[in-house]
């Protein structure tokens, strides 16, 4: 991650609502981020190409083109973290955006505290993208080289599929992983909503082995109707 003037990361806001852009700009600048703005999709794509932001906040409802099209266009040449802003009831938009390459989403109306937390997680994930051989999440330790998992100093026995699922979630800690993404990365091939019961079963297995109270998980959080998020234990 590049550090720019003001001491923070460079963030591009693509949103057609002036009030939202002003709120984001004032708040994020107060947290020492370097802010750039665009009020439409084409302008946002152009800004992304010349500004080279460290992170993009993208509204899916834009006047000139779909926010999904902006996401796809940017993903053709950049892996910059993208957090999308979505309408509250549009669950399918959240899934499509995550499957299309977004790193996270925040639902409108949103609290700035929540958005700031999402931004920090996304930037931290990029900063630590050089994969460490050992991942540590409080009492949980995952040794990627040895394929070993320990909890509170004791070895946790996992099946190969359980380990692959845990590894996929943990290496994307803080990010929402959709059901389709997890099915493709862990089981491979093409999977559909009808296959999601496999995922629920294995998530249940992991929670029984890792969580003190599987009904109140501290590691694997359910994003209802969308997928799962591995909590980064900050």
Automatic annotation (TrEMBL):
GO terms for biological process: positive regulation of DNA-templated transcription. Residues 132-232 bind DNA. The modification 4-aspartylphosphate is found at residue 59. It is found in: Cytoplasm. GO terms for cellular component: cytosol; protein-DNA complex. Residues 132-232 form the OmpR/PhoB-type domain. Residues 10-123 form the Response regulatory domain. Keywords: Cytoplasm, DNA-binding, Phosphoprotein, Transcription, Transcription regulation, Two-component regulatory system. One of its GO terms (molecular function) is cis-regulatory region sequence-specific DNA binding. It comes from the Bacteria. Member of the two-component regulatory system KdpD/KdpE involved in the regulation of the kdp operon. Upon phosphorylation by KdpD, functions as a transcription regulator by direct binding to promoter regions of target genes to positively regulate their expression. This is Transcriptional regulatory protein KdpE. The lineage of its organism: Bacteria, Bacillati, Bacillota, Bacilli, Bacillales.
